[in-house]
Amino acid sequence: MINIKDIRDxxxxxxxxxxxxxxxxxxxxxxxxxxxxAFITSPEQADELIWDPxxxxxLSLYLVHDRKISxxxxxxxxxxxxxxxxxxxxxxIVVLMQEHYFKREDVYIIGVSCEGxxxxxxxxxxxxxxxxxxxxxxxxxxxxxxxxxEGEKRLPAxxxxxxxxxxCRIPFPKEHNLVFGDDKTGxxxxxxxxxxxxFEEQGNSERWDIWSHHFDRCMRCFACxxxxxxxxxxxxxxxxxxxxxxxxxxxxxxxxxxxxIERSAMRSENITYLMTRAxxxxxxxxxxxxxxxxxxxxxxxxxxxxxxxxxxxxxFGYEPGASIGGPSLVASFLDNDPxxxxx
Length: 343
What we know:
By secondary structure, this protein is an alpha/beta fold. The chain is built from 13 helices and eight strands.
């Protein structure tokens, strides 16, 4: 079991020695129980760090933000950033390194094992607490323990765990500089792609009706894109307002820019947006589930990405974020590929 003191001591020591410029981790949030991202820049701040079932954010997103800010300011301190990373977070970092977004020496990965208990899904928890608001959450073996005004409430982790954690096959950061917690790889609580498989048991018309309903509800707020560390393009092909403009950009260039989809949140446009995004994440999504968590209308966006992930695994034996030196999906092939053109 992970002792938060070890993570705090590590952060404090690295900052005191000037080995890193920032430690990105988790701290108690401003709205009570849920953790929030923390950016620790001095040894004195290290005691703010926490590790509990509400540490669900994929913090690799902030490595992307840091890279963009540094590029804009044309400034590089030369020191790496340390980051607390779960298994899926570490795989996201690996994908970013595969794509040469930053170098391995730019990041010090403090790995934390989920140890088979994953992180919390607040929507599932709400149905168990009947309106009672918890103030703290903690790991205790295979359970989560919640502190409320009415006392402690203990629940089996698997009942309120995020679906991505139930299906996770590798809840351990294989790529790390330092790691805390035991490697419980293989202790998955549900079959991989269980939700996707169950959905596909329905007929084509039923599946289309369900997804038509989801496409109609999408507000195109782009929360799923904004929370995804893999969506780092300065110009998004399906968002007409993300057009990099400089002093040299002419009026004609602005006027003639291709608009692939309309801004209005209609079904046809929403389908184009969500399906295009899923295709762009094929072989890159590490199933951190942040898109599902961020969606304000609860569209199961993760299922679209799961479909692409399963296709990549079954057809090419490909696992996103498995190895920094490994090929990308588009550079992968199998000798027994059924397409003759591959030979």
